[in-house]
Amino acid sequence: MSAQRPYGGVKAVERRAQRRAALLGAAFEIIGAQGLDKLTVGRLCARAGLNERYYYEHFDGRDAVLSALLDALAEELTTAITRALDATRGADPRTVAHAAIAAGVGVLADDPRKGKAAQIIASASPESRVRTAQTITAIADLVASSAAGRARPATTALRFRAGYLVGGLVMVLGAWLQGQLAMTREELIDHTTDVFVLVTGDLR
């Protein structure tokens, strides 16, 4: 197999990844600012600054774009929460929970368009709803494992409570991002931390 030739110092595989990232970033912007109906191939490529042929290099339709956005968001959330958990390993439960919750909220709140887009995409299609549920379950399992500690696996009861809390946080966060919940970001994180510590404390 011949080596991929660099162009401008960037290899072909890296250029492909950059184009895909640009398309996904543009999709988040369009959906968050204008709504799902405005997500067309023309608008997406124009926003990303790419020729339409690069769209079809990565996606075969809008559903594929939405799936990719959900996957990217799930990866970003998992990475942020995992880093927060690693950074606070060995600390008291409230400190750990606060850090993890703040990290997750930050992913969706730091860029309001991303938070809004995530809400729209989550219910855009049956597949999107399934992927969203899978993401919530995966994050809940991560939270449950952290609460249980490395010495023992998370119990079914702890996994249930973690799932209940993460699912509830998703709903509350959605209301907060839409301005339907009158509290600051730190208040939201603090109250969520209080609930998490209260609900999982007796199962550690």
Verbal overview:
By secondary structure, the protein is mostly helical. It has helices spanning 12-34, 41-48, 52-58, 62-87, 93-109, 112-122, 126-148, 156-177, 185-200. Helix 4 (62-87) packs parallel to helix 7 and helix 7 (126-148) crosses helix 8. The protein is elongated, with a radius of gyration of 19 Å.
- At CATH's second level, what is the architecture of the largest domain? Orthogonal Bundle
Q: SSE order, as H and E?
A: HHHHHHHHH
Regions with pLDDT < 50 over 5+ consecutive residues?
Answer: none
Q: Note the overall shape.
A: elongated
User: Main sheet?
Assistant: none
GO molecular function, one term: transcription cis-regulatory region binding
Domain HTH tetR-type: 17-77
Organism: Actinomadura verrucosospora
DNA-binding region: 40-59
Question: How are the secondary structure elements laid out?
Answer:
Layout: H1 12-34, H2 41-48, H3 52-58, H4 62-87, H5 93-109, H6 112-122, H7 126-148, H8 156-177, H9 185-200
In short:
The chain is 75% helix and 0% strand.
Descriptors:
204 residues; mainly alpha; single chain; Tetracycline Repressor, domain 2; 2 domains; Arc Repressor Mutant, subunit A
